[in-house]
């Protein structure tokens, strides 16, 4: 029998993710707050849409969420119209939203109480990863639950890895974002320095990108950074949300994040330059705009 | 006729670099302040040593330096025993030391005045790169000078790139070090956070190392960082020297390096923990040692 | 007729504040979650205690709160036992808790709706200020409301200043805490440097405390900081709460707080050293403990 | 017999300092690189000028310097025209320049070798302090040397304090500058936040300046900072010189200065805005100029 999936959140990420599932033969019913996006999705993928999360979740074997932040998740999960009100016993709820580990634990407990399974499975890879089914999924939960849905997740992702108990997917994603912040800070200061020093970007990046200074961001973003092109990619607003999730968690687990905290504030300066929707590599822009 | 090379500085880097040249058929004469290392090199490579830089430089077509810092370079270049006192007209002086761009320009001018050619050619790749002839060389100077020595440099390096006029090699190396500092800061805070969060390092790194958080350092150092192993690699003392060269240059070219400057001070805290000779990835140690 | 006051929160601050009012002739009824503290207060000041905030607030002309954080305030304000359930028409609610401006606006709106007046009036001056009635009160709200209660507030404070509409008291307090963080960071790094440099603290502070480096903290804390005495004063945990309130507000108003954010993380390192309840001047301790 | 004084450096500080001495009855001979300033001084104070530092120092009981940085001091001290070439046995050299402790020790050794006494005595108090004879002098050297010149120094300063052996005056001045940096960072972020929050500066500063957030800078600079007035006072360029002296010393004594290092880079951003000669309180300007 065809596995039934409900997918809540037809944003930049959720839309193509749900599309891959439908194309792979799953029976997908989507929900989106703004109905027009759900309709567009139905047109493109010949799929179904529901008028509330609860209705979308009815009969579903698996319910997936990909919305904005903790509060957004709560608003599609709880209440009469929320997915928990519609889910059937034994169904699995998977949250792909980048959110707090606390939320994950809260959802895990709520699911357990009501007879559902739960996984937190935030993703990395950006819009391109979602469109090309090349996401990385960092999963928190029980292995036996993951094993049931692993093939389905691999329709959307090229790496699906269990990180530990519920919440661990989110924690791994926090590490990911903290690492990116540092990489981009070094790259931004390095390239802005290189500009002021009159260096040639092609020769520079050719020399330094293969060695110990190298990074995915250098390989993929140094060219656009040098040219001040930021109108694409993973938005500064999202990044600040994610870094603040990590810093809030750090207040609980006792980690110190001095460099990350500084970078988060430098992103505030990028926002002040109008960069809310710019790619995170726009961290360089405040250095370039100084003059 | 065999090209004659003088190589000044038989340290961790210079020793194997000079060895590759000798093995490749160049006629190498080495000099080292501490004579025992020069003797060891002669034994290992059946080469020659001289008792002063000036004597080593006599008859040499190419004179290479790889010593500690600006002052160290000056002490083997100038004076009666310095290489400039020994070099013959038309010879090329190449400085592989990581030093200031100002020093490079000063050496360039001194060479021009005395009828020599000059290139600054600092390297990256560490001890392993030197031993395996897989260095990256960032070269500052004139193309026609580089073209004369390119084959010789490629004996030691897998990438030899001209970055611009004299000094540009050093400037590119500064960018390299600034980028590394940021990468390692993010990685250190990320991994230390992951430890406090109870994550599994294998699953974590498997998930995040291939995507936009990925870096050479994550690929090659996250395992040792997690285990607190730092007794190898590129020393914190060297890193601080390099970052201070970059920050001094930034004061001249008007670049701002807020994150780099912070990281430099965090390295001071690593030094206070005894980490002067630890690998730069030990930036993580101060976070782990907090408790 | 004697003005009736309800005072909720018999902590370090609230206990002596309520005491001053009772001594000044106001008719004070206190409430504390942990009843023993309320009883102790009644014994010391021959006052009255109530079993819920709502009961304390009945008949009161003025209801004052001084609890921990936003959530704590909500828990004594709302619900059947909360003060709003007990207050009479025209009564004034004054929140002395250091909390968010958002909470202040929320309380202001709730009061308006139910026919009460509201002022946010966070304080500075610490335990000593509370005990000696030398607090500073930063007030947000309407001038005509403040004028009604000003004499009562001046029983506890030597400065009561209107900062603007509801929420402005909290905003001013945020500025206060941000300023303190910077002062203490400079002082900590300066004194720790001075220690390493072998300077004499008496001569040093005598020289620098009267000029442009001078501050209340230098005047009042440099001696204890030098001696590593932190077992008193305003706790690091409270400071982090306050700085995070400011940073959250900054995300809304677009301010950038790079130095503050860094210091907040350095306080995380002080907490990791066991400093949760140490005075904020313990920021120096992480520098001293490096070796 | 009248004490003879040579004063080298008729800059913003040295000019009025030398004037006070002349007015107090000392026999002052000045030298300035740019002769016109020395002439103006002679006109104003009916004093004498010499054509070289060496000639000014001849016959002098005390030789005072107040020039720019380490190199500037060396250029008026050493060589045939330097003060050491002119000084008589037993004379005292006092350096009022803000310079490194290393330079002080070097000058101390040179003086000892040649039969002179030496004190480092950098000042704080700014142009106003110099003009109004209200400087603070932080002195390094021997008590018996200081006691000889103390009355003379008190002609220019309201506080003259011995900080320890030669170099300690400079070390104390470093602490002073580090403290100022922190104070101004907190004040800048606090006031810029207050602006964004729509607060009234008068009410704000009235409330917070008397308590634990208070500082000389808040008392004396918050008004001009709020109004963006920076065209006076102690220049950003000088501040960066001083902070870099402190950071270089910290590399030797093992102190960590994370917040100071960050602030130094933020001053680089103020310089990029054109603020080289602005008062140090212009640290706020980069926050205000974000939009
Ligand atoms: N974009 C990227 O590159 C990446 C994003 N992520 C994370 O994935 C998540 C989704 O990102 P993305 O798709 O880009 O975001 P978008 O803003 O494109 O989409 C957000 C989706 O969530 C819905 N939503 C938001 N709030 C609510 C709410 N309160 N109630 C109901 N629905 C709501 C939106 O509905 P509506 O259409 O009605 O607004 C929309 O469908 C975020 O957590 C993000 O951090 C992770 C990796 C990469
Ligand atoms: N201490 C200081 O130096 C200064 C403190 N402040 C601010 O003043 C406020 C109070 O500080 P302080 O008096 O030191 O704090 P304490 O921890 O000493 O006291 C807190 C008080 O709040 C009560 N409380 C906390 N949470 C709740 C809750 N959920 N429900 C009911 N009551 C609750 C406590 O009750 P219980 O006894 O039952 O725990 C106690 O009476 C804080 O916002 C602080 O930031 C401001 C300036 C200086
Ligand atoms: N200004 C202030 O508020 C304060 C300054 N200081 C410190 O005091 C010192 C002097 O400051 P300030 O008076 O403001 O500086 P100015 O720039 O006003 O004056 C510098 C003086 O030094 C002379 N000078 C500089 N370099 C040389 C050189 N290589 N050879 C000969 N003379 C030289 C200049 O001569 P010329 O006229 O020919 O240029 C001038 O007389 C600095 O170290 C500064 O950091 C300390 C506290 C406050």
From TrEMBL, chains A, B, C, D:
Pfam families on file: NAD_binding_11 (PF14833), NAD_binding_2 (PF03446)
Molecular function terms, GO-annotated: NAD binding; NADP binding; oxidoreductase activity
InterPro entries, sorted: 6-PGluconate_DH-like_C_sf (IPR008927), 6PGD_dom2 (IPR013328), 6PGDH_NADP-bd (IPR006115), HIBADH-like_NADP-bd (IPR029154), HIBADH-related (IPR015815), NAD(P)-bd_dom_sf (IPR036291)
Every 6-phosphogluconate dehydrogenase NADP-binding domain range: 4-160
Residue intervals of the 3-hydroxyisobutyrate dehydrogenase-like NAD-binding domain: 167-285
Keywords: NAD, Oxidoreductase
Top-level division of the source organism's lineage: Bacteria
Active site: 173
Name of the protein this chain belongs to: Oxidoreductase
Originating organism: Aliidiomarina soli
Taxonomic path: Bacteria, Pseudomonadati, Pseudomonadota, Gammaproteobacteria, Alteromonadales
